[in-house]
Amino acid sequence: MTKVFIPSDTTARSLNADAVAVAVGALGEDIELVRTGSRGLYWLEPLLEIETSDGRIGFPNVSVESVHALFAEGIPTLEHEKCLGLVEQHQWLGHKRLTCARLGIIDPLSLTDYLDHDGFTGLAAALKMTPQEIVGEVTASGLRGRGGAAFPTGIKWQTVLDTQSEQKYIVCNADEGDSGTFVDRMLMEGDPLRLIEGMAIAALAVSATIGYVYVRAEYPQAIATLQRAVEIAEGAGYIGKSINGSEQAFHLEVRKAAGSYICGEETAMLESLEGKRGVVRYRPPLPAIKGLFGQPTVVNNLVSLATVPDILAKGAHNYAKIGKDRSKGTLTVQLAGNIKRAGLLEVPFGITLREILEDFGGGSFSGRPIKAVQAGGPLGTYMPETEFDTSMDYEAFKDIGAMLGHGGLVAFDDTVDLAEMAQFAMEFCAIESCGKCTPCRIGSVRGVEVIERIRAGENADENRILLKDLCDTMIEGSLCALGGMAPLPVLSVMEKFPDEL
């Protein structure tokens, strides 16, 4: 019996992976078909893999029509002309993966597969520790929030631990709304038990008994897969009335998000979870002290929580020695836009943006020079070619006025109209604003109008001054990051691409 692996990831399915799987399954009883998540080599999907004694070999861009030709002379081998070699030796997988280590390898809903690949070893380690020891380990690892703010995870957990309350919550923010980002979806579809394990560890660390995963509404497959994984974990006793035989309960629920970008902001998300309209809260108090239903709440991004099991299993020192300076561990880079090779990378902090774009991305898809890269989602700055040698770490990006955000990179070649992109940033803010604060609600609308006048050549010099003042007002006066950061793409175009606007 030969194992053949085909991804069931949303992107692979959009490229007809389900039909390919049906065709492979019909070949005969000598083949065991396994559906996995995706490894993230998206330009090669559907990527069919075959288990051999030397490791798994890969065959890219398989179609229904090519299946019979591929298997015409039996199970294809490493010598087959279509074979790209041992998948584990592919350049994109050259850096050791931590958070995404199981993606594309296991059946995401097989508890046996998960356990065979060191699943729940982090939870087992945590069960032997006190809450303070768990928090200390996460703090010592240097793990910082992967949602964009990069706040130290251990400090957040310590605050919740130190706050006295009969009820505490763990909330995973999986409302992945930034353009060019998809790692949250990939982890939910490809390794959902990892997230559940990370949330159970967080519950032990702060004595929380209830958890919620707030999942982007546009991710139906991720929601379904995660819900089934919760049922599997609860049925096996890893969560529910008891966390793997301990005296602590932890009940986990998957919630479909409200379809609003602003609900990716943690306090608006909490409002939505409480059944209210997603509107940003004033701070203080912080959610760690008064969060969901007014109780102490750990709010973390999905990647942050999915990284915790490795830290507990292998020790904080092993994680902390990876990366650069205060940016510890690995970064999940999602490469999209006008790029030859798009997909998911997991690399140590410290690699340069140019290495990502050229060595891994292969340059633009169009073959033209890459003119700009927007890092960190729709509120991120546009980075010119002169900044491509910047180290991919939080401090280096901050030094040039950019941000890593959730790790999304969207590339544009030299045909892009950056004035149009600047206008889009303001339009996006105007549409997605919760409306609570004036600088964001009114400023974004006025910003669109001013940019339109500049693009039309109407009193351009005076309107550029007005636009700069408006951007400064939004940055200083907005209640949350949506209004405070929407001007950043506009300002980056004005400052770094002065001929564009």
Fourth-tier CATH superfamily name of the largest domain: NADH-ubiquinone oxidoreductase 51kDa subunit
Instruction: For the record, give the distance between the C-alpha atoms at the N and C termini, rounded to a whole number.
Output: 62 Å
Radius of gyration: 23 Å
Number of strands: 15
Which parts are unreliable, with pLDDT below 50 for 5 consecutive residues or more?
A: none
Just give the CATH class of the largest domain: Alpha Beta
Which strand-content bin applies to the residues?
A: 15-25%
CATH topology assignment of the largest domain = Rossmann fold
Secondary-structure-based class equals alpha/beta
Strand order of the biggest β-sheet: 12-11-15-13-14
What's the number of structural domains?
A: 4
Reported CATH architecture of the largest domain: 3-Layer(aba) Sandwich
What is the count of DSSP helices, taking H or I runs of 4+ residues? 21
What is the residue-averaged pLDDT? 95
How much helicity do the residues have? 25-40%
Shape: globular
What kind of sheet is the major sheet? 5 strands, mixed
Describe the structure in your own words.
With 501 residues, the chain is an alpha/beta fold. The protein has helices at residues 10-14, 17-25, 64-70, 111-116, 121-126, 131-141, 153-162, 183-190, 192-206, 220-235, 266-273, 302-314, 316-320, 353-360, 394-399, 418-432, 438-441, 443-455, 460-477, 481-485, 487-496, and strands at residues 2-7, 31-36, 48-52, 55-59, 169-174, 210-215, 251-256, 297-301, 323-324, 327-328, 330-337, 343-348, 370-375, 382-384, 408-413. Helix 8 (183-190) packs across helix 9. The longest helix has 18 residues, at 460-477. It is globular, with a radius of gyration of 23 Å. The termini are far apart. The model has no long low-confidence stretch (mean pLDDT 95).
